[in-house]
Amino acid sequence: MRSRFFWGVLIGIFMFLGGTSLLLWNEGQNAGEGDAIVEARRVAVEMPDVTKIAPEFEGKMVRATGFADAKDTLTDDFSGFKTTALSLNRSVEYYQWVERREGDSFSYILDWQPRPVDSSEFHRDGRRRGFENIVLTRVPSATMYADVSFGAYRLPRFLLQEMGRLSSVRPALNLTQDEISALNRRIFPNADSQYVHVRGNVIFLGSSPTEPRVGAVRVTYTEVEPAVFSILAKVTQDTFEPFKAFNDSTFSMVMAGVAGMEEMFGEAVRVNTTMTWVLRVFAVLLIVYAMKKFVAARNPTGAGLKALFLGLIWSFFLFGFTALSRDYLLSGLGFWIAAGLLIWQYRRRFKKKTNEEAGRAANESHK
Q1: pLDDT tens digits along 174-213
Q2: Integer Cα distance of 11 and 14 in angstroms
Q3: Residue spans per domain, the chain
């Protein structure tokens, strides 16, 4: 019982520190990103033609649209697959036993994992029952990038990475049967059967792609095809770099197809706001859960509601503190809400205590 109490409080401390750190970092990041977007919008200009190098745009933040084209062929060093694409991504998964803890008991399921799972770290009961992981072979995940032209300009790696998050497609792996057999011999030189199977954009390593066994490997390919993109970035000679604001935050953006200046900056603001709120809510939940651990350790009765108020009070205080240097109105609002919740909670406890004392006095008068 003491051990469970100790671990509960320790987890609460880590969650409180984690939630507080995340909230402070997120508010600072939101302010930095937001200011960088505003500053970039103020100085951004249209680059109407990317088919020739224009010296007048040197060092300027521009919005440009052009056709991103691969100048060379990408070759996967594992499978030998060749493609003409801006980038080629190889993602590897392993079919492994995974341990799940449910209270004081453990369960085990087979699932695809991004890396091999060390079964020697399983609970001794799981090891005794034979839940042991192996891997047929190890294949590193990787992303390959082509030399990409954007009219007369070259696209740098950071823009290609953003394009990969926007418009990846699944290529058909055009490996011949002879190439597949050669790959099988190279990976499994002592195998007397076929262990390499190609299905669409996936190479499956194992005895059966439809009924995988422990140790099977799944290699999935995606690529970014040459296409029209719109970018927001700073021109530097014949390529681009992120815009650097006065607060040292950087900003750049890519959208698929033709997108105007206002559309791109509007999307940048929306993405920044959405991400900020997602992390903000997550951080507050961490703080509230940590408070629940602390409150329940003293008195489990009503711990959830008390933790909610304490977590919100602390979160609004942090929000006011982080806004202090950039917006007095927002900072004051955060402090005001935190103080309001604190006063409301104090008055609620005072009223409850007064009612309890009145009830005890009434009971004594009846005796």
Answers
A1: 899 999 999 999 999 988 889 999 999 999 999 999 999 9
A2: 5
A3: 2-37+273-366, 49-258
